[in-house]
Amino acid sequence: MISGLKKIWNFADLEKSNLNVSVVFEFIYAIFNMLQIVAIYIVLNSIFSDNKNMKVSLIVLILLTLSIIGRSYFNSLAQLKQVHAGYFMVANKRVEIGKLLKTVPMGYFNRNNTAYITGITTSVLDDIENTAPFILVGVLSGLINSIVFTLMIFVFEFKLGCIVFIGTLLYLCAVSYMEKKSKASSAARQKSQSELVQRTLEYIQGLFVIKAFNLEGIRDKEIISSITKNEKVNLDMEESLTPYIIIQDIIIAFFSVIMIATSLQLFFKGSMNISDGIMGIIMSFLAFNHIKSTGSVLATLRLATSSIEEVEKTMSMPKIDIDGKNIDPEKCDIEFNEVSFSYEDKKILKNISCKIKENTMTAIVGLSGSGKTTMCNLISRFWDVDKGSIKIGGIDIRKYKLESLMELISTVFQDVYLFEDTIENNIKFGKQNASHEEVVEAAKKARCHEFIEALPEGYNTIIGEGGASLSGGEKQRISIARAMLKDADIIIFDEATANIDPENEDKLKEAIESLTKNKTVIMIAHRLKTIRNADQILVLKDGEIVERGNHEELIKNNGLYSDLINAKAKAESWKLNN
Ligand SMILES: Nc1ncnc2c1ncn2[C@@H]1O[C@H](COP(=O)(O)OP(=O)(O)OP(=O)(O)O)[C@@H](O)[C@H]1O
């Protein structure tokens, strides 16, 4: 129990002060609550004594009014602090996770799919927000208040105090046992909850494929099975805890009855007057209220701590930018030194060594799956090399702070991702503080100004998530405009032939030329024209550079390159002839 509370406390981080204040408010609330008992005691004393006057009624009235006002005021303040703490402790973690995600190797996402991380940042953190602060404050204030109340009863009547003390201890033992028992079921609940989020997200993201291949029935079954499993885990958890809840209720009922019996016995023996006797009976109904509320929140402690453990596990993701420095290299040439790389156990690149001179264009060609994209991704440190090194300006890229490395590189991906935002803001990703004029200029150079202007809201048109409302070619030109605006020294370009319509091909070629002028360019090239213009061509086969040189040299070699070019030329003439 204590370790669980400590976990919440540490997780609260900057919100600890709000939790502290909330505990104090809960304590003051309890004091105002006790005023009611004092008022009842005064009434009883007055009824059973000869001192019956209006002054007593007035005091009781004032006490009860104070109690009502004080309780509602401090209760709302305490709740407000807890809601504030819950919201901000989770919001801060979401921002922290967002920052961390930028520093993890992309391989992390292979092992922990995005749906799992989405589950953590949404439903798991929501669980923490809605339970953790209330549990911590509930338990602490409940314990403090029941200690104070028990002390008060000790002062009132020692024997009754002993009964409350023993009853409270036994009750806490039962709660603590139940809390331990719920460990396994909390973890299972956590797992099935994440699984449900994963399946739901997968279903939504793959809706196109599901519809196209008529897979509704099969995928529906998977979601329904996750829902059923989740329901069963929740029910099992409730069922396994029910006997302990019954035992706790029995303990409280039993000790309340003992308090009533003891009060009556003390009265009949003459050790208590009638008003104290009645007060003892009334207190038997109230004595365990605080500890009971503590117990009910403690039952959910495991749920909150297993959610926190899950978030902590996600936050301990491997980072690749631990001690990087801000570096502005004198030159932007790139060098691969005996680089090897595997995705998990699958070896992709083997001893790659090459030099890419500043302000030259290097085309990487090779069969599908030969490792072209992987080679480019290693330059941006989406993954780290397993062996060897990559240098920019003679400095190992692992020595750069990720941000300063990213400032040097613009990447135009084959699969362009656009955010659900205006076209202008999507282009501005390249340079956050760019003016509208700069955005338009970049769009003009990237040959996308005309189609943007033709949209109903022009540059303020909101694009659907992932760029859903644009064609592949339009998305790619927007991403070229982005790169144009960023104006980085190194351009990595994954050429997407499929997305270029013939009418725009020449325009796009001009756009690419103006983007890559006086830059160090690495291009995964598919089109003959691009390859022909390259200063250097690297031919990849099964993760190894098997040929290198310019177009003429490689054609003369009569190796894989000339085979690829011949096949391409055939395909292109086939396309033209048909
Ligand atoms: N994230 C990943 N996790 C595991 N394996 C991957 C991952 N990305 C790519 N691969 C595998 O690595 C190999 C090389 O992929 P890569 O994308 O680098 O090839 P490519 O030459 O660019 O292919 P293409 O021309 O089809 O785009 C492929 O076999 C691919 O299946």
UniProtKB/TrEMBL annotation:
Report the InterPro entries cross-referenced here: AAA+_ATPase, ABC1_TM_dom, ABC1_TM_sf, ABC_transporter-like_ATP-bd, ABC_transporter-like_CS, P-loop_NTPase, Type_1_exporter
Domain named ABC transporter: which ranges? 334-567
Cited Gene3D superfamilies? ABC transporter type 1, transmembrane domain (1.20.1560.10), P-loop containing nucleotide triphosphate hydrolases (3.40.50.300)
Places the protein is found: Cell membrane
The record's annotation in SUPFAM superfamilies points to: ABC transporter transmembrane region, P-loop containing nucleoside triphosphate hydrolases
GO molecular function, one example? ATP binding
Membrane topology reported for the UniProt record? Multi-pass membrane protein
Where does the record place the ABC transmembrane type-1 domain? 21-303
**Matching Pfam families:** ABC_membrane, ABC_tran
Membrane-traversing stretches: 23-44, 56-74, 134-155, 160-178, 245-267
- Where it mainly occurs, coarsely classed, is membrane
Q: Which UniProt keywords apply?
A: ATP-binding, Membrane, Nucleotide-binding, Transmembrane, Transmembrane helix
Output the PANTHER family linked to this UniProt entry. Answer: ABC TRANSPORTER, ATP-BINDING TRANSMEMBRANE PROTEIN, ATP-BINDING CASSETTE SUB-FAMILY B
Entry protein name = ABC transporter ATP-binding protein
Taxonomy-wise, where does this protein's organism fall, top ranks first?
Answer: Bacteria, Bacillati, Bacillota, Tissierellia, Tissierellales
